């Protein structure tokens, strides 16, 4: 959970640092706390009454992308948001956008990120380097074999997707690839795809691979679109 650094002038405690924000069309006396709703934890707090138990009147706002969430928190249109862990650090340092100090007082997950590949790509990896996929943890050696074979045939680079450039998914994907001698920026085409359209892209275009968080990974496995 992240909010702009200006909210923390009263100290690290979360008590008293939330400002009163009226909803559009409501009386300014209405006490509201606007939070971007992208995944389950924040919605769970609303549904189970945890916000109300802490005396917070929260309005959840569903947004279309992580970049949209970051920009709205920076501009004050949102009071707080759930974000990928590196995003508030990048905003504070001015990486890939304006420099705006942000505070991250708590972590809302226990991991769950995963790298998935299409069934077609997995079959190619298994055919070219079965030893690399014999037992976990699976390295990207098999993927490197596929990339080298495609290069010989003069085929275009495979496309892998992540949700945001400064996200743990992006860095974990790059680390996994680099550990096998794959240059993420030269040997593949990395694209950022907004979370709301992930399912459609996987269903209709069958992306060769991606790195994302749960529950997106679970959906692709349940629907039979990919392998982890």
Automatic annotation (TrEMBL):
Domain of life (superkingdom): Bacteria
PANTHER family reported in the protein's UniProt record: ALIPHATIC SULFONATES-BINDING PROTEIN-RELATED, BLL4572 PROTEIN
Name of the protein this chain belongs to: Uncharacterized protein
Organism whose genome encodes this protein: Alkalilimnicola ehrlichii
């Amino acid at each position: 959970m992240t909010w702009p650094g200006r909210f923390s002038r009263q100290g690290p405690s979360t008590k008293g640092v939330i400002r009163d924000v009226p909803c559009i069309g409501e009386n300014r006396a209405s006490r509201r706390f606007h939070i971007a709703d992208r995944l389950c934890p924040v919605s769970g707090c609303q549904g189970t009454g945890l916000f109300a138990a802490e005396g917070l009147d929260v309005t959840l706002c569903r947004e279309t992308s992580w970049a949209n969430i970051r920009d709205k928190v920076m501009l004050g249109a949102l009071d707080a948001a759930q974000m990928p862990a590196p995003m508030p650090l990048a905003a504070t340092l001015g990486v890939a956008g304006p420099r705006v100090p942000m505070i991250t007082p708590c972590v809302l997950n226990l991991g769950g990120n995963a790298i998935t590949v299409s069934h077609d790509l997995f079959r190619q990896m298994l055919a070219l380097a079965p030893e690399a996929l014999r037992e976990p943890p699976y390295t990207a050696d098999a993927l490197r074999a596929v990339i080298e074979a495609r290069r010989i045939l003069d085929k275009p680079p495979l496309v892998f997707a992540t949700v945001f450039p400064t996200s743990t998914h992006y860095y974990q994907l790059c680390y996994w690839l680099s550990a096998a001698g794959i240059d993420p920026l030269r040997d593949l085409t990395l694209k950022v795809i907004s979370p709301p359209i992930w399912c459609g892209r996987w269903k209709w275009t069958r992306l060769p691979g991606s790195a994302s968080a749960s529950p997106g990974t679970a959906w692709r496995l349940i629907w039979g679109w990919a392998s982890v």
